[in-house]
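Figure 6 in text form: structure in, sequence out.
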């Protein structure tokens, strides 16, 4: 009797212990799992930025879709999640035509979360509705706007401003894209002391110059490289070299230039040692008399730009305290012949004009004047017309003006 009561008591104790263990286990499990609501989980569209545009398509509707979820899993995991940590991904890479689509999505969790530990108890939608349309594109010009003032003595060269690229391609819905007329790049050159070369952001503008802010408009480039030339400005002296001779001394000439200087712009290193521009050499003996109109071209040095409003300067010449007198000269000889050659002038005489002090000219006679033909550059026999020099013997301040030539025949013996 006592033995049966003991066995019955053991069974009751076993049942009680089993029940207690089950309760403890349930409490333990329940304490380490939990559920939570996640609202407005964003939807990511894979291929919206590359695959669709490559096919001339775009995502027109559905891009702002969200999903509400109820998730359960380990308390340590669920309690640490936020709606922004979860992404619902929709794959658009296989879409090749415009139209409406209802697409399923997959849930993506942070890298340190094992998706197999999470159970989706409820979701607000099982698919996402989107509309795919044709992508409309057009090109717009990039318009640089330069503001500010450069430091002295530098100058901003507006004609040399370059943008790369010079046009941008804007894409999106036609109604959105048609609002855009240009892209404005603002470059501030305040106190700049050299050429600016860098990348800049830009604003999209409508036809009235208002900024267009539309996140649905795609642009081919996010920034534009701009080159704004900033050169040094420097005033250079204009210089004339004079060739003097008897009767054409610079001491007897009064001359002036209509422009005595010119301002150029260029690289500071190029201008550092440059102070003047030589216009050329002027042979005073080629001027028979005073000259009022004698324009000289101003050749700008390489690497520089003319920022003055003229490209020539006029040289005026006036001879002072000199007189002129004409003579007919028949004394003609030649130099520059070989030992076996001779020159037979076909021109019997040359009319020449001499210039010099009046008192000297009164004393000069035809016998004092010689015509010397220079045949140095002419080697072959035959008839030729060669330049001639006029020599006045005994009068150092009297010389011929103008240019002369003689026709004759070179003969070899």
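Output sequence:
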């Amino acid at each position: 009797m006592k033995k049966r009561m003991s066995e019955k008591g053991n069974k009751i104790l076993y049942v009680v212990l089993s029940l207690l263990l089950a309760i403890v286990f349930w409490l333990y499990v329940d304490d380490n799992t939990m559920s939570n609501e996640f609202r407005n989980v964003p939807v990511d569209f894979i291929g919206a930025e590359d695959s669709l545009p490559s096919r001339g398509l775009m995502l027109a509707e559905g891009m702002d879709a969200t999903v509400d979820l109820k998730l359960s899993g380990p308390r340590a995991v669920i309690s640490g999640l936020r709606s922004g940590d979860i992404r619902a991904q929709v794959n658009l890479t296989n879409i090749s035509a415009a139209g409406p689509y209802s697409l399923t999505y997959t849930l993506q969790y942070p890298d340190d979360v094992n998706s197999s530990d999470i159970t989706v108890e409820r979701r607000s939608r099982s698919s996402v509705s989107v509309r795919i349309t044709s992508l409309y594109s057009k090109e717009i010009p990039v318009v640089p706007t330069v503001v500010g003032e450069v430091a002295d003595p530098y100058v901003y060269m507006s004609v040399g401003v370059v943008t790369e690229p010079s046009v941008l391609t804007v894409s999106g819905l036609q109604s959105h894209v048609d609002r855009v007329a240009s892209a404005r790049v603002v470059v501030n050159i305040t106190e700049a002391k050299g050429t600016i070369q860098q990348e800049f952001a830009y604003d999209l503008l409508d036809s009235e110059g208002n900024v267009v802010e539309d996140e649905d408009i795609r642009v081919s480039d996010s920034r534009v490289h701009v080159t704004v030339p900033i050169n040094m400005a420097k005033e250079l002296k204009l210089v004339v070299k004079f060739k003097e001779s008897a009767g054409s001394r610079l001491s007897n000439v009064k001359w002036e230039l209509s422009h005595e200087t010119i301002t150029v712009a260029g690289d500071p290193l190029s201008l550092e040692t440059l102070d003047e521009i030589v216009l050329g050499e002027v042979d005073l003996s080629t001027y028979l008399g005073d000259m009022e109109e004698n324009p000289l071209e101003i050749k700008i040095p390489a690497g520089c730009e003319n920022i003055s409003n003229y490209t020539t300067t006029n040289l005026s010449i006036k001879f002072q305290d000199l007189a002129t007198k004409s003579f007919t000269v028949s004394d003609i000889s030649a130099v520059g012949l070989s030992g076996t050659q001779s020159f037979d002038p076909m021109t019997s005489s040359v009319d020449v004009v001499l210039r010099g002090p009046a008192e000297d000219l009164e004393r000069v006679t035809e016998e004092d004047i010689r015509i010397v033909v220079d045949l140095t550059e002419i080697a072959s026999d035959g008839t030729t017309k060669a330049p001639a020099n006029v020599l006045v013997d005994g009068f150092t301040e009297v010389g011929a003006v103008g240019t002369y030539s003689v026709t004759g025949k070179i003969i070899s013996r």
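Caption detail: The two ends are 173 Å apart (CA to CA).
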